[in-house]
Amino acid sequence: MSIEHGIRLGSLSFSKLENSGRLKDLLERFDWVYLGPEFCENLLENAVVSEIVRFQEKGKKVCLLTPLLSEKGLKRLTAVFKKLIKLRSAGRLDINNLEITVNDFGALELAERENLPFKINIGRQLYDNIFVLKRTQLRVLNRLALDFFTKIGINRYELSTIGIRPRTNFRDRAYGFNPKKFSLTLYYPYLNLTTTRTCMVGMPYIAPDNSVRSIDCDRECRACAFEVTHPWIKEKLLIRGNTMFIEFPDKFYSSEKELKKLRVDRLVYCPFP
Amino acid sequence: MKIVSCFSYLEEIKPLAQAGADELYCAVATLPHFGKPAALTGIGPLKTAVRAAHGLGMKLSLAVNGIAPEFTLKQEAGLLKRLAAADASGVDAFITASPSMFSLLSKLKPQLRAKLHLSSVQPCFNSLTAGFFIKLGVSRLILPNQLAPFEAREIIKLCRARKVETEIFDYRFFGCAYLNGRCHLHFPDHYTPNIAIRDGSMCRLNVKAEKLPALSCIETDPAWKPRLGPVMKRLSVRLGCGGAPRMANAASFFDFFSAGVNYLKYGTRQDASEIKIKKVRELRAMLDLVEKFSTTLPHKDARACFIEKMTGWDGNKF
Fold first, then answer.
1. Domains in chain A, number
2. Bridge partners of residue A32, in order along the sequence
3. Across chain B, what does the average pLDDT equal?
């Protein structure tokens, strides 16, 4: 099987792409379209459902990204899940061509509660529970971590780009797990270093006498990403909304064969952090 | 509300109790834990600590909250033995975070006598996440510092219904800008330092604003261009020296207290002994204050008085 290719659209929408004339090229180049907010619940909107339908109608496979959730995000995600279930019942969604990526255990619980019929993946904010990811290493922590998620039906995990040929323990029998039990999706070229809820870009100052009701912002993250040259480190940091990224070099794998050894069978291009 | 304090050395137990701690927690070097390496070397000193804490009428929890414990099958067997030994030593609870640690501890059931607490490094921001971990046997949730009391209402309601305890950190002595347990800035796994960087200091950039190079924008949305100046200034100051906005403050503490959160935590194990003791005294003083205002004044007035008093609290002595 060849490597599948996807694109994470971020704030780009079907209409924006269509109006800018970039849609046709995108539809030709990518098998998968990744939609939805990966890092912030404030960007989770019902409109993502119609975007999913539009891309599926164009024959694309779609993955819905979901973020870390507070009670507010949970309500929003519940509404999105209910709509998806309704559309599926109406025959307007192809169950085999829609996956949901979760970045919160509450989303996993919600998917179970709602009997969500779609495949669930573990996202880039939860992979630390299963993998060690460093520039030179990609290792499964232990068999129990993998079993924990396998038992609840998870077999795809999403990670960010790392260096070429990281060392793995996938064939090390001492760990006692079966590497065929999981597949990896690799996002490139940005690796998410850290995330905050109190968004450095968007959230206003909180006075000592103010107990906030939620994360308040004007969606400043939609303005742009910021590049920061930090005096202590060689690489540049990139900040988009509540998340800090680092960019990896263009060439992060030598061949598709090498990727398959890493259990990577899907690559997701992120045009911006 | 009761006080839970960390300790690193056996000699700290008694003075922390005298300073006002109701419960203690620690880590041991032989079991995976989050943060700095533990000073207690293993099960032997742990047993001594349990005896000392119980002798003073305090419960003792053991942090086994390493988020990414890596182990082979052989190491798994050893880890299980050490967890069983820790349980047998009399610890009252294991503070856990990693799914694999939950799985390991479940192997000790039904003999497992210690309770399970969910560490804040596996952050719980909603009631369904709380429910997920309660199903795994958690009897206390340690809430992350980036959660507002208003947002925590459903979690607290659920916990009360399921008889699960809740715990928060003292806002004055804890609070990274980033999600605790999910931060890759902490160690240079993905970036190349130009200088020797102390662990964790990249999370608190603490570079003076004027020294921080100007930010540059990538792919600016034209509609935002006129409004970009203040956003850039805000980010620059926050990255440099201002820090991220803090949700945890005097007001949020009062609201968590009023909501009936059970425990207040101080958890900086690397602090020197005398600082730990001083800080626990500060926790006790704050609890005395909030209890005094809450029992003598109407809610609104108590809140205002507490916030006013705590806003004047001098943190420079630490």
1. 1
2. A6, A61
3. 93
In the block, residue with structure tokens 């130009």? B194
Q: Rounded CA gap, B190 and A235, in Å?
A: 9
Which residue range(s) make up the domain with A86? 4-191+248-269
Q: Is A161 contained in some domain? A: yes
A259 within some domain? yes
CB atoms B247 and A149 under 8 Å: no
Question: How close B194 gets to chain A, by Cα (Å)?
Answer: 5
The domains found in chain B, sorted by start residue, are 2-178+246-317 (3.20.20.70), 205-242 (no CATH)
Q: What pTM does this model have? A: 0.96
Q: What CATH number has the domain bearing residue A134?
A: 3.20.20
**CA dihedral over B145, B147, B148, B152, signed as positive or negative:** negative
Of A110, A176, A226, Cβ closest to residue B215 = A226
Give the DSSP H or E segment for A187: strand A183-188
Nearest to A174 among B74, B219, B235 (CB): B74
Alpha carbon of A93: minimum distance to chain B alpha carbons (Å): 26
Pairing, β A156-160 against β A4-8: unpaired
Kindly write down the DSSP assignment for every residue of B282-301, as one continuous string: HHHHHHHHHHHHHHHS-HHH
Is residue A261, in this structure, part of any structural domain at all? yes
Instruction: Tell whether A70 is covered by a domain.
Output: yes
Residues of chain B with pLDDT below 70 are: 199-200, 205-213
Model ipTM?
A: 0.96
Q: Answer whether B100 sits within 8 Å of A144, measured CB to CB.
A: yes
